[in-house]
Amino acid sequence: MRIFTAALGTESNTFAPIPTDWRSFEEAGLYAPGEHPAEPTLITAPTWVLRERGPKEGWTVIEGTCAWAEPAGTVSQSVYERLRDRILDELRATLPVDAVMLGMHGAMVAHGYPDCEGDLLSHVRANVGPDVAIGGELDPHCHLTQDMVDAADILICFKEFPHTDFVARGREVVELTARTARGEIKPRMSLFDCRMMGSFPTSREPMRSFVDEIMALEGKDGVLSISLGHGFPFGDVPEMGTRTLVITDDRQAQGDALAAELGERLIAMRGKTAPPFMSIDEAIDCAISQAGPTVIADVTDNAGGGAGSDATAFIRRIMERGVADVCVGPLWDPIAVRFCHGAGEGAKLPLRFGGKVGPFSGQPIDAEVEIIRCLPEGMQTFAEAPIAMGASASIRLGGIEVVLVSRRRQAFGPDLFSNLGIDPTAKRMVVVKSTNHFYAGFAPIARDVLYVDANGPLPRDLTKLTYREIARPKWPFDPDIFE
Predict the structure, then answer these.
(1) Amino acid 306: pLDDT
(2) Is the preceding omega at residue 162 within 30 degrees of 0, hence cis?
(3) Looking at 198-347, which runs of residues are DSSP E strands?
(4) What's this model's pTM, rounded to 2 decimal places?
(5) Tell me, what's the pLDDT at 217?
(6) Contact present, 194 and 267 (Cβ < 8 Å)
(7) Cα separation of 283 and 142, whole Å?
């Protein structure tokens, strides 16, 4: 069997002021055919799995380009077309093939293309014809569009948030797409629009039990796969929102009914799935009232959602209140990192850092700092996958220690701090810029985990955003929709 595989993705925050250009892909991960690293990444699991499984099965696996950009603003039209066309040219050069397996995100938006994945899949289908099996892996924070479903045979989202199961889901994509190519199954996809938007972390109830129940349904009574498309609220596109996707073995009516049933259950959970959000002062009060470490997520300045990750409100308030035994990170400031590297470890200097991307970033911090450690390439770990942070530095100002990075990244694992000479387990308070991906790594070291709405560029109250393109009515923008 001949299989073509490639990957293309980013999560596009159409409200963000940070453009996504060619350099964004070069800095985060742009690999020519055959040059993908030995470790899997969040959107390249199908390629990695095929490398592992292909030789055992006797498959001929042809790798195409793999490209990822850190979440930011809308992608340049020319950049998207260049990457898409590169992959399509690679595909055409390998024809005929029995299957195509792609890694994608599902919420990539380019100027002129509100649904990049739907566009890419449609072009792939036009090139390979109706009989070639097409499978794709998606992040659950995707826009599960009808064009995507129409063009593919198999689409599978990660089930976990944090996304610790991206390799497991990649294995499912490879298995089900291969079975489709061999004629062993006839997948039928059923999509249900929940007409709402929400946050659905699987690290807490009720989503933990709901996902466990969904997984128990798979592999029985003709159900091949079930995916929950949480949706990405910071992408203002027509099909943004929460959806359920059921794949059955030639049982369309059954799949339609199950997708609707699961969707209705999600609708009944609306407003009950997200963790409670505190103010900055409420979180500080809670943290100083107990022995640490208390891990606090600054969710509204999460680079993983397209934010600058350079907001200073939290650090400034900690300084104003004189709280000590605190570490914060990662904060994106390539200029401050360069100054730290120039001065060297152990040096003390007046440093201005943070507060550069836009109004939500706040004013920069000016402080006398001590440089703890400088690394030419800072690293952290997520689900055993290494995450590069570029040149990095850690600094100390009073009782606060901060990790500064030159590649915009969210917090994933405690080694974000420990690799830069900071012991998070010894702190009273650990402030991470992340929404929930930090949880798998940090929860084991935390006495408590808190979530804060610090009035950053990713508000928890979505009604604060000005949407122009999304389909209405939709909850919570239209609160009476289900009455």
Answers:
(1) 97
(2) yes
(3) 223-229, 243-249, 277-278, 294-298, 326-332
(4) 0.95
(5) 98
(6) yes
(7) 30
- CA–CA dist 10, 213 (Å, integer): 29
| Rounded Cα gap, residues 343 and 340, in angstroms | 5
Contact 97, 63 (CB under 8 A): no
Q: Which of 349, 197, 369, 177 is nearest to 273 (CA)?
A: 197
Instruction: Compute the distance between CA of residue 346 and CA of residue 379 in angstroms, rounded to an integer.
Output: 21
Over the stretch 394-435, which tens digit does the pLDDT of each residue have? 999 999 999 999 999 999 999 999 999 999 999 999 999 999
pLDDT at 291 over 90: no
3-state secondary structure of 409: coil
How far apart, in whole angstroms, are the C-alpha atoms of residue 122 and residue 165? 27
Residues 347, 396 contacting (CB under 8 angstroms)? no
Question: Residue 393: left (phi > 0), alpha (psi -120 to 50), or beta?
Answer: beta
- Residue 39: phi and psi, rounded to 5, are -90, 150
372 C-beta neighbours (distance < 10 Å), count: 18
Rounded-to-10 torsion of CA 244, 239, 164, 459:
-120
- The Cα 452–Cα 274 span in angstroms is 12
pLDDT tier at 371, thresholds 50, 70, 90 = very high
Per-residue pLDDT at 385: 86
Q: Rounded to an integer, what distance in angstroms lies between the CA atom of residue 34 and that of residue 330?
A: 32
